[in-house]
Amino acid sequence: MLENYSWKSASQIFRKKKVALVPVGSTEQHGPHLPLGTDFFIACALAESVARDTGAICAPVIPIGVSAHHKQFWGTVWVSPQTFRQYIYEIATSLEYHGIRRIIFVNGHGGNFPSLQEVSLNLRAENLYSVAYQWWTDPSVIELQRRLFKSKGSHAGAIETAMLLAIRPELVDTASYKEAAEGAAAEFGVTKFGAQLPVDTLEFSESGATLDPREATVEAGKQIFHTALESLKNLTHWLEKAKVDDLEPKAHKS
Amino acid sequence: MLENYSWKSASQIFRKKKVALVPVGSTEQHGPHLPLGTDFFIACALAESVARDTGAICAPVIPIGVSAHHKQFWGTVWVSPQTFRQYIYEIATSLEYHGIRRIIFVNGHGGNFPSLQEVSLNLRAENLYSVAYQWWTDPSVIELQRRLFKSKGSHAGAIETAMLLAIRPELVDTASYKEAAEGAAAEFGVTKFGAQLPVDTLEFSESGATLDPREATVEAGKQIFHTALESLKNLTHWLEKAKVDDLEPKAHKS
Amino acid sequence: MLENYSWKSASQIFRKKKVALVPVGSTEQHGPHLPLGTDFFIACALAESVARDTGAICAPVIPIGVSAHHKQFWGTVWVSPQTFRQYIYEIATSLEYHGIRRIIFVNGHGGNFPSLQEVSLNLRAENLYSVAYQWWTDPSVIELQRRLFKSKGSHAGAIETAMLLAIRPELVDTASYKEAAEGAAAEFGVTKFGAQLPVDTLEFSESGATLDPREATVEAGKQIFHTALESLKNLTHWLEKAKVDDLEPKAHKS
Amino acid sequence: MLENYSWKSASQIFRKKKVALVPVGSTEQHGPHLPLGTDFFIACALAESVARDTGAICAPVIPIGVSAHHKQFWGTVWVSPQTFRQYIYEIATSLEYHGIRRIIFVNGHGGNFPSLQEVSLNLRAENLYSVAYQWWTDPSVIELQRRLFKSKGSHAGAIETAMLLAIRPELVDTASYKEAAEGAAAEFGVTKFGAQLPVDTLEFSESGATLDPREATVEAGKQIFHTALESLKNLTHWLEKAKVDDLEPKAHKS
Amino acid sequence: MLENYSWKSASQIFRKKKVALVPVGSTEQHGPHLPLGTDFFIACALAESVARDTGAICAPVIPIGVSAHHKQFWGTVWVSPQTFRQYIYEIATSLEYHGIRRIIFVNGHGGNFPSLQEVSLNLRAENLYSVAYQWWTDPSVIELQRRLFKSKGSHAGAIETAMLLAIRPELVDTASYKEAAEGAAAEFGVTKFGAQLPVDTLEFSESGATLDPREATVEAGKQIFHTALESLKNLTHWLEKAKVDDLEPKAHKS
Amino acid sequence: MLENYSWKSASQIFRKKKVALVPVGSTEQHGPHLPLGTDFFIACALAESVARDTGAICAPVIPIGVSAHHKQFWGTVWVSPQTFRQYIYEIATSLEYHGIRRIIFVNGHGGNFPSLQEVSLNLRAENLYSVAYQWWTDPSVIELQRRLFKSKGSHAGAIETAMLLAIRPELVDTASYKEAAEGAAAEFGVTKFGAQLPVDTLEFSESGATLDPREATVEAGKQIFHTALESLKNLTHWLEKAKVDDLEPKAHKS
Questions:
Q1: Which residues of F29-44 are buried (b: 16+ CB within 10 A; e: fewer)?
Q2: Is the CB of E250 inside 8 Å of chain D's CB atoms?
Q3: CA B47, CA B191: separation in Å to the nearest integer?
C-alpha cells in the first residue's frame, strides 16, 4: 500500500500512526493446485485489508523468504535464513527512521517464523517492538479449521486452498486437487523417536501438499480470512494503543 | 509472474527456457507527484511484458532496495547495499538450482545498479551469467528522451512521470506537478571540483524530483515503455541464444 | 565423554561407529530452586547414558546457548543465535573430519532449537546428517508428563525439577519451591490475538519458573529420564543403521 | 607522506588541519606498455603534491583494490569489493580517532569507485565526511582530454600513458605502444541492447588497453596532471573551509 | 561453578564481586597418554579453586576452542578462531549485563591465546577489562618447571602430565608413556630460517606429545598447580581491587 | 616491485618462479625519532632486496595493519585484525590465480603476526603454503642483537633505529633520541602475576619507544639488515625448492 502513496501523502499517515504492517511471504511450491505465490498473496491480502480498516501503514509485501526445504519442486525461490533476517531487520530499522517503532510482520509462510522471532528479539533490544502474526497458528483460526474440515494439514491443504479461493480464485487449479490429495502427507514434517528430522518436503509429500484440498470452499475461505482479519485488527489496535512502558524490555532484576 | 504458476505448470517453462528475468526496484520517494513504488512498478511492468512475449521465466518483483539517500522523505524504505546484494545473490543461486544459469535483473532504481553489477561479477565467477538492464540508461531510450523532452533529469522527472502515466496513471498526482517542478534539481547529485559528493537527495532537491514533470504525457510514456521493451526483448533473445562458451569467463592469458 | 579418552583410545570408537552425540544446553535461570546449569546437566546426562549403552561417540557438553530472553535473572550467560549456530556448525564439521557424518544434538534448552534446526538443514546441504533431540517435546515424554503431573509448564516446572531430582538432587533447592510456584507462569510465553509476543521470561514469570515444581519427585524424574533415554537410544540405533541413501537429500523433481 | 613523519612531527599537522587525503589505487594490468602500479602511482603523486601545497594530511597509498576483472592478465592482484570497503572504512575511522572528520579518497582506479561511494555514504552516517576524487572523470580533465587527443579510452590509453610519462617516465615501455594499440578496445566495457555486460577486460581488449597510447606525450601528461591538481587543491580547500552544518546529513523532512 | 547456583543464590555473588573467571580449554589430542579434555580439565580446576578461595564468579568451562592444528589425531574437535572469538566475546558481554566488567579468561590451551588477546582488546574498547591467564607461560611456573624437570616441551609433556596426575589421575594412561616419549617432538612447532612454519602437530610429533612425560609425578603436579593457583589468586585480587581509572583505556596524547 | 612491471614483463617471472614475497607493515608511532612508516619501510626493503637477488615475485608493500594499540599517538592508522586478515587472505588467493601457491609474508610489524599466522593456516587448508618471516624474531638476528647492544627492547629501540639508519637515514630524527630514551619502556607490554595485560603502548611507554635508541649505528643497522636478508633468502630458496608433498597438509592418522 505504501507503494501507492507519494512521500507527501505518506507523510500524513506516518504522522498519525504508530504501527506499520510488513507482509512477508515466500515463493514456493504449494502442491500442483496452488500458485507459488500463495504465501505472499495471503499475507498481502490480510495486511492490506487491516491497513485499509485501521489506517495503519502497510509496507510492500516481501515475496521471497526461507523456503529451501521446498527446493526440489520447480519454481521455488529462496534465500538463506540469515539473509532473510538481515533483509527484514533493515526494513524495520528504515521504518524506524520515519518514527515507527511498532511493527507487525504479517507472515504467510511458516518457514519464515523462527527468523521473524529472532529478528523481533533483536529489534526489541534496540527499542523497536515487532511481532509476527501468522494466520494458521492463530488459535481462533485453528478452532474454526476444526469445525470446517476433517483433514488437518496446513501447507497447501484444505485451509490454505480455501484462503486462495477467497482471495485469488483464478489461480486455484481445481483440476489438480486429486493429484494433490493422492500425493499429500498427513502432516508437515517427519518425526522419528521424538525428534523432528531435518527433511525437505519432497521426503514426505510427493505432491507437495499436506492432506486433502478437496474440502476447501470459497465460503470456508472467506470465514477463515475474516477470522484472521479480526485477530490482526485487534492486534494492530492493541499495539497502536500500548503504553511505551509495556513495550520496552524490563530492567534487570534488582 | 512465477508467483501465479503452480510448481507443476512452472516445470513446463523451466524445462523449455534458459533465461529468467528478476525485476528489482525500490520503495522510495519520487517527488510529491509519483508513488513510492514507482521504481518497482516500472521494473515489474517491463519484465512481465517481456516474459509474456518471450516465454521467459519472471520472478516476483523485489520491492525494496538501496535507497538510504532518499531517507529524509517520508515512506522511503531501504536496506543496506550489502544486504541487498546478498538477497539478490541468493535469489539467483536458488534459480540456478532449477537449472537457470542466465538471469536478467530488470532494474528500476539507479541506486541498485552498482550492487547489481557487483552481484553479477560474483555470480559469473560461479558460472552464472547475469546482466542488469535499466531502461533510463539504455541508449535508445536516452535518444528518445532527447527528442521528447527539453528537461533532462531522470529521477521523478518528465521521463519517469511519463512512464507512470503509461502504466499506472491512477497513481500520478498531476496536481502536485508544480510543487515537484519548483523544488526540483536540474541534475541528480552534486559535483564539486570534479568530485561527486556523497549527498542525500534532500541536499539538492527540496521536492525530491529532478526537473520538470510537466512535459510528461501518456503518449510519451508509451513510446518510452515500448522502446525499453524492445531492448529488453532483444537482450532476452540474445541471452537465450548465446553459446555457453561466450558466457563463461575467459581463461588466464597464456 | 570423548574428553576422557586419549586420541589413541578414541580412534577405536571412531573406527567402529557412525553416530556422534553432541549434548547442548545453556546457563540460564531456572527459577529460585534449580541451578543455572539445569539444561546442560540434563543434556549431558542423557547423552552420556546413551553413549555408554550404545557405544556412540559423545562430545563434551556445550554449556552456553541462546538464552538472552532470561537475561534479567542473575547469572544467565548467553550468546546470540548467530554465534551459537556457527559454533555448533563448526563442531559438527570438525567431527566430520574424523569420518562422522551422522550427529544427534541432544538439546536441553528450547531456545536453542530453532538454531539447531537451521544448523541441521545447513549441514545436510553438505551431506552431514544431524538431528536435534529434545526430551520435553518427545511425544512419549509428553504422554508420561500428562500421567504424572497436573501442572503443565516445562521450564523449571514439575517435569524439569523431577529430572534434576533424578540426576543432581543435591542442586535442587526444595526450600524455594513455594517461591518458584507463587511467581510462576502457567505457560511459557505470551500470546496476544493469536501472535506470540517477543517477550523476555521476566515479563510473564516473576520467579522464572512455569507452574508448580512441587509435584516433582525423584521417582517421577527417573521415569522421565528413562523414557527419554529409550527414545534417544532408539534414535541413535536408527541413525547408526540408516542407509546412506535415506539420509542424503533427494534430487530435484524431474 | 604521513609515513615519513614521526608521531611527534605528525601531531603538528593533525592539530592544524581538518582534511586528510587517502590515495587509493590498484595493482593491475595496464596494457603491455604501462606498469601494474599505474593507478596507485598517479593517485599517490596527486595526493602528495596537494598535501605539499596545502599542508593537508596524506596517508600512505593503498596499493591493492577492486581489480578482479583484469585477472586474466599476469600480475594483477586484487581483493573483493567487500574487503576493500572494509579496509578503507577502517582506515577512515582510525583517522577520525585523531580528530579528522574530513577525508578525500584520491582514487586512481575506476573499479574502486562504487566501493568508495558506498564507504563514503556509510562514513557520513557516522558523521565522517569523505569524498572520492578521480582525475579522469573530472570535467576539467575531460575537457582537456578532448583538446589533447583524438582517441578516447581511459584505461591504459593516451590519457593515462601521458600521466605516467609525466610522473614515472622510466616505467613506460614505449616499444610496446604498437602492441597496446593494436590489441586495444575502443571503449572500456561491452554494452548489449542497452545493458552493460559483466565482462572481464580480456573479453574486449586483447592487450588490456583502451585505444591508442601513441598520442601520449610528456607535455600532455604535465598539463593533465596540473589540471587535476588544481581541482584537487580546490576540493581540499573547500572541504577544509566547509561549515560543519553543510557536511552533516540533513534532518528528516518535517 | 555458576552452573551450580540458582539465579537467586547467584544474585548474592554478583552483587558482591567485580571479577568473573571464565575457564576456557579445548578438546584435542594430548598424546596417547593424556585425555582429549586435558586443557579444559586444568582450566576448570584452576578457575574453580580460585573461585572457591576468593568468592569470584566462575562461568562454566568452555570445552572447545582453536585446535585445528591437531586435527589429524582422532577425537580432536575444534572451531575456527573467528567463531571462537565471537563465542567468547558474547559470553563476556552477557556477563557485563549483570554488571561484571572485569573478566579473567583462565586459558588451558595455547592455540586459544591469540584469539583471547584479540577479544580482550576488543572488549576493552567497550570498557570491559579482560585478561587471559595461562599457567604454563606464567614465569613462576616456568621457573618451577626448570627445577622439576630436565625435559622442556609443554604440550602433553612432563609438565602437563604432572598437572593431570594432580587433578585427574584416573585419566592418565601411564602405560602409554613410552609411546608418547618415543614419538614426541623436542619442541612445539617447526622453525625454518627464522620463520615459524604454519604446520600441524603431526608434522613434528608422531605421538602428539612434546618431550618425555615420564618425569611427571603427582607431587610435581601438585606443586605446579599450587604455584599457578597462587598467581591466579593474586591476579584475581589485583583485578578486584584495581581502580576503574587504571583499567580504562588512556585518552589520546594531547 | 611487481608494480614496476607491465603484465607482459610480469608474465616472464610468473612463469619461472613459484614463490611470491608480500611485504606487510604498518603506519604507527615509533617514538619521537622514527617515522610512522618504519615497519613497512623495513619490510619493503628486505623483500625487494631478496626479490632482486633471487628473482622471486614481490608484491607492493601493504602499508596499514594491526596497530590499534598505538592509537593514542598521533598519526597511527590501523584496521581491525579481522579486516587485515581478510585483505591479506584475498591478496594471497589472487596471486594463486596466476599459479603462485607459495608465499612469504615479509612482516615488519609484530602486531600483524598472529593474524598472519591465522591467515597462513587458512590458506594452507586451501593448498596455498604461506609463511610469515619477521626479522626481529629471527634467532640469528636476536643473537646479533645481543652482541651489538646492551639494551633489549625492539619497538623503536636500538635495533629498529639501526635498521632505519641503514635504509632511510634521512627519516631518523637523532635530535629526539634523548626524549625517546627517557620516555621508553624496558619491555614491550605489561605482565601481571603471570598474565600479559591487554594494554596500549601508552600505558607503559610515554615516548612510544622501548629502551634506548642511542646505541644504534648505521653500521649495526647494515649488519642486522644483512643477517635478516640472508635468512630470508634462504627461506625463499627453501620454499622455491620444497617438494609439493612437504608443503601439503598431512592426511588424518590412520
A1: bbbbbbbbbbbbbbbb
A2: no
A3: 33
Question: Are A73 and B176 a contacting pair at CB < 8 A?
Answer: no
To 10 degrees, what angle do helices E139-148 and E218-241 make? 170
Contact flag F7-D91 (C-beta cutoff 8 Å): no
DSSP run (H or E) holding E238? helix E218-241
**Distance separating alpha carbons of residues F108 and F24, to the nearest angstrom:** 6
- For residue D76, the chain B residue with the least C-alpha distance is B252
Chains with 3 or more CB pairs under 8 A to chain E: A, C, D, F
Using the Cβ of B250 and the Cβ atoms of chain F, whether some distance falls under 8 Å is answered with: no
Interfacial D residues in 176-195 facing B (CB < 8 Å)? 191-195
Q: Are B75 and B27 in contact (CB under 8 A)?
A: yes
The minimum CA-CA distance between A247 and chain E, rounded to whole Å, is 20
Listed by number, the residues of chain D in 119-138 with a beta carbon closer than 8 Å to a beta carbon of chain B are 120-121, 123-125, 129-135, 137-138
User: Contact, F2 vs D62, CB < 8 A?
Assistant: no
Q: What is the 3-state secondary structure (H, E, C) of chain A?
A: CHHHCCHHHHHHHHHHCCEEEEEECCECCECCCECCCHHHHHHHHHHHHHHHHHCCEECCCECCCCCHHHCCCCCCECCCHHHHHHHHHHHHHHHHHCCCCEEEEEECCHHHHHHHHHHHHHHHCCCCEEEEEEHHHCHHHHHHHHHHCCCCCCCCCHHHHHHHHHHCHHHCCHHHHHHHHHCCECCCCCEECCEECCCCHHHCCCCCCECCHHHCCHHHHHHHHHHHHHHHHHHHHHHHHCCHHHHCCCCCCC
Nearest to A238 by CA among C189, C205, C194: C194
Three cell numbers at A116?
A: 521473524
Put simply, the answer to whether F253 touches C11 (Cβ < 8 Å) is yes
ipTM: 0.97
Please answer yes or no on whether C253 and B11 come within 8 Å at the CB atom.
yes
Q: Which three cell numbers stand for residue C28?
A: 540460564
Cβ-based contacts of F252 with chain C (< 8 Å): 97-98
Q: Which chain D residues are Cβ-neighbours of A11 within 8 angstroms?
A: 253
Q: Considering only residues 142 to 161 of chain A, which have any Cβ-Cβ distance to chain C shorter than 8 Å?
A: none
Any idea what DSSP says for residue F200?
-
DSSP letter (8 states) at residue E174:
G
Gap from E96 CA to chain A (nearest CA, Å): 12
Note whether E25 and E39 are within 8 A (CB): yes
Helix (H, G, I), strand (E, B) or coil at F157: coil
F11 vs B contacts (CB less than 8 Å): 253
D132·B195 Cβ contact <8 A: yes
| E75/E94 Cα distance (integer angstroms) | 30
Reading chain A (254 residues) residue by residue, the pLDDT tens digits are 899 999 999 999 999 999 999 999 999 999 999 999 999 999 999 999 999 999 999 999 999 999 999 999 999 999 999 999 999 999 999 999 999 999 999 999 999 999 999 999 999 999 999 999 999 999 999 999 999 999 887 898 999 999 999 999 999 999 999 999 999 988 889 999 999 999 999 999 999 999 889 999 999 999 999 999 999 999 999 999 999 999 999 999 99
Task: Say how far apart CA F133 and CA E191 lie, in whole Å.
Answer: 10
**What distance in Å separates the CA atoms of residue D109 and residue B252, rounded to the nearest whole number?**
22
Euclidean distance between the first and final Cα of chain B, in Å? 45
SS3 B62: strand
Distance from CA of D9 to the nearest CA of B (A): 31
Closest C-alpha to D112, from D153, D67, D149, D147:
D67
Q: Yes or no: say if F36 and D10 are a contact pair by the CB < 8 Å rule.
A: yes
Specify whether the CB–CB gap between C108 and C25 falls below 8 A.
yes
